[in-house]
Amino acid sequence: MDEMMTTVANDTFHEVTLDSALEEAIATVTDSLATEGFGVLTRIDLHEAFEAKLGIAYRPYAILGACNPALAHSALEQMPEIGLMLPCNVTVEELEGGGSRVRFIDPKAVLGGFGGASDPALDDLAEEAGSRIGRVAAALAETG
What CA–CA distance (Å, rounded) separates 9 from 7? Predict the structure, then answer.
Protein backbone atom coordinates (compact mmCIF):
# COMPACT_ATOMS: atom_id res chain seq x y z
CA MET A 1 0.00 0.00 0.00
CA ASP A 2 1.14 3.55 -0.58
CA GLU A 3 2.54 5.76 2.14
CA MET A 4 -0.06 7.07 4.59
CA MET A 5 -1.42 10.55 3.97
CA THR A 6 -3.82 13.00 5.52
CA THR A 7 -6.04 15.60 3.93
CA VAL A 8 -8.75 17.96 5.05
CA ALA A 9 -11.75 17.99 2.74
CA ASN A 10 -14.33 20.79 2.72
CA ASP A 11 -13.03 21.97 6.12
CA THR A 12 -15.41 19.50 7.75
CA PHE A 13 -13.28 16.39 8.27
CA HIS A 14 -9.78 14.95 8.37
CA GLU A 15 -8.96 11.84 6.36
CA VAL A 16 -6.12 9.37 6.91
CA THR A 17 -5.31 6.15 5.08
CA LEU A 18 -3.71 3.42 7.16
CA ASP A 19 -1.96 0.27 5.96
CA SER A 20 -3.98 -1.96 8.29
CA ALA A 21 -7.24 -3.89 8.01
CA LEU A 22 -10.38 -2.70 9.79
CA GLU A 23 -9.93 -4.23 13.27
CA GLU A 24 -6.29 -3.20 13.56
CA ALA A 25 -7.12 0.28 12.24
CA ILE A 26 -9.90 0.66 14.83
CA ALA A 27 -7.51 -0.34 17.61
CA THR A 28 -4.91 2.15 16.36
CA VAL A 29 -7.48 4.94 16.06
CA THR A 30 -8.89 4.19 19.51
CA ASP A 31 -5.42 4.33 21.07
CA SER A 32 -4.61 7.56 19.24
CA LEU A 33 -7.86 9.19 20.34
CA ALA A 34 -7.04 8.28 23.94
CA THR A 35 -3.84 10.34 23.77
CA GLU A 36 -6.05 13.42 23.32
CA GLY A 37 -8.55 12.46 26.04
CA PHE A 38 -11.18 10.83 23.81
CA GLY A 39 -12.79 7.49 24.45
CA VAL A 40 -14.92 5.49 22.05
CA LEU A 41 -18.43 5.26 23.50
CA THR A 42 -20.15 3.58 20.58
CA ARG A 43 -19.31 1.40 17.62
CA ILE A 44 -21.68 0.66 14.76
CA ASP A 45 -20.56 -2.01 12.29
CA LEU A 46 -22.53 -1.05 9.20
CA HIS A 47 -21.41 -4.09 7.23
CA GLU A 48 -22.96 -6.35 9.88
CA ALA A 49 -26.14 -4.25 10.14
CA PHE A 50 -26.62 -4.19 6.37
CA GLU A 51 -26.14 -7.95 6.17
CA ALA A 52 -28.54 -8.66 9.05
CA LYS A 53 -31.24 -6.12 8.18
CA LEU A 54 -31.03 -5.87 4.39
CA GLY A 55 -29.26 -9.04 3.28
CA ILE A 56 -26.66 -6.85 1.58
CA ALA A 57 -22.94 -7.63 1.63
CA TYR A 58 -21.01 -4.42 2.31
CA ARG A 59 -17.32 -3.71 2.79
CA PRO A 60 -16.14 -3.59 6.42
CA TYR A 61 -17.20 -0.13 7.64
CA ALA A 62 -17.55 1.07 11.23
CA ILE A 63 -18.71 4.31 12.80
CA LEU A 64 -17.08 5.13 16.13
CA GLY A 65 -18.59 7.61 18.56
CA ALA A 66 -15.64 9.43 20.15
CA CYS A 67 -16.07 11.60 23.23
CA ASN A 68 -13.82 13.73 25.38
CA PRO A 69 -15.84 13.77 28.63
CA ALA A 70 -14.46 17.08 29.93
CA LEU A 71 -15.17 18.92 26.69
CA ALA A 72 -18.60 17.28 26.31
CA HIS A 73 -19.56 18.25 29.86
CA SER A 74 -18.50 21.86 29.32
CA ALA A 75 -20.41 22.03 26.04
CA LEU A 76 -23.57 20.57 27.59
CA GLU A 77 -23.36 23.08 30.45
CA GLN A 78 -23.29 25.90 27.89
CA MET A 79 -25.97 24.48 25.57
CA PRO A 80 -27.84 21.31 26.61
CA GLU A 81 -29.15 20.76 23.09
CA ILE A 82 -25.56 20.32 21.87
CA GLY A 83 -26.05 16.72 23.00
CA LEU A 84 -27.72 16.21 19.61
CA MET A 85 -24.27 16.62 18.07
CA LEU A 86 -22.42 14.28 20.42
CA PRO A 87 -20.36 12.16 20.24
CA CYS A 88 -17.89 13.11 17.48
CA ASN A 89 -18.11 10.57 14.68
CA VAL A 90 -15.11 8.75 13.28
CA THR A 91 -15.52 6.35 10.37
CA VAL A 92 -13.17 3.49 9.54
CA GLU A 93 -13.64 1.62 6.29
CA GLU A 94 -11.56 -1.18 4.88
CA LEU A 95 -10.32 -0.49 1.36
CA GLU A 96 -10.64 -3.04 -1.41
CA GLY A 97 -6.92 -3.01 -2.25
CA GLY A 98 -5.87 -3.22 1.39
CA GLY A 99 -5.62 -0.79 4.25
CA SER A 100 -8.30 1.38 5.78
CA ARG A 101 -9.56 4.92 5.36
CA VAL A 102 -10.29 6.85 8.55
CA ARG A 103 -12.33 10.06 8.67
CA PHE A 104 -12.68 12.34 11.69
CA ILE A 105 -15.42 14.99 11.83
CA ASP A 106 -14.27 18.51 12.71
CA PRO A 107 -16.40 19.58 15.69
CA LYS A 108 -16.01 23.26 14.82
CA ALA A 109 -17.61 22.73 11.40
CA VAL A 110 -20.50 20.80 12.95
CA LEU A 111 -21.04 23.34 15.70
CA GLY A 112 -21.12 26.22 13.22
CA GLY A 113 -23.93 24.53 11.32
CA PHE A 114 -25.77 23.97 14.59
CA GLY A 115 -25.76 27.65 15.51
CA GLY A 116 -23.34 27.33 18.40
CA ALA A 117 -20.63 29.37 16.71
CA SER A 118 -22.35 32.54 17.92
CA ASP A 119 -21.52 31.54 21.52
CA PRO A 120 -17.84 32.34 22.20
CA ALA A 121 -17.55 29.71 24.95
CA LEU A 122 -18.92 26.97 22.68
CA ASP A 123 -16.79 28.20 19.82
CA ASP A 124 -13.70 27.87 22.04
CA LEU A 125 -14.71 24.33 23.07
CA ALA A 126 -15.27 23.32 19.46
CA GLU A 127 -11.92 24.82 18.53
CA GLU A 128 -10.24 22.81 21.32
CA ALA A 129 -11.97 19.56 20.32
CA GLY A 130 -11.14 20.18 16.66
CA SER A 131 -7.50 20.85 17.49
CA ARG A 132 -7.29 17.61 19.46
CA ILE A 133 -8.88 15.59 16.66
CA GLY A 134 -6.60 17.29 14.14
CA ARG A 135 -3.59 16.23 16.20
CA VAL A 136 -4.86 12.64 16.27
CA ALA A 137 -5.22 12.63 12.47
CA ALA A 138 -1.80 14.20 12.00
CA ALA A 139 -0.15 11.71 14.36
CA LEU A 140 -1.75 8.79 12.54
CA ALA A 141 -0.58 10.18 9.21
CA GLU A 142 2.99 10.50 10.49
CA THR A 143 3.29 6.97 11.87
CA GLY A 144 4.33 4.33 9.47
Answer: 6
Q: Which of 120, 93, 100, 82 is nearest to 19 (CA)?
A: 100
This prediction has a pTM of 0.88
Tens digits of per-residue pLDDT, 14-26? 999 999 999 999 9
Question: Candidates 3.90.950.20, 3.40.140.10, 3.90.79.10, 3.30.310.70; correct CATH number of 6-142?
Answer: 3.30.310.70
| In contact, 88 and 65? CB cutoff 8 Å | yes
Rounded CA-CA distance 110/88 in Å is: 9
Q: How is 26-78 classified by DSSP, letter by letter? A: HHHHHHHHHTTT-EEEEEEEHHHHHHHHH------EEEEEEE-HHHHHHHHHH
